[in-house]
Amino acid sequence: MEIRNEEHARNMLKEWQGLALSARKNEIRLAIESLELSSMYYEQKGNDKGAERAKRCVTILAEHFNTLE
Question: Is the pTM of this model over 0.85?
């Protein structure tokens, strides 16, 4: 699932709460990878707002990922 903005990232974290820890980590990892690719794409196209939005979403997801055991 493609994460569109910061609010959507937070909502997806809530949605993933019901998953097993390993599945939750996997979903977050996949989302981060996708967002990093999106950020690179936006940078290449000169879309600075899109690149920054993707980076903020990565930060939100990565911070949550780091709290998981």
Answer: yes
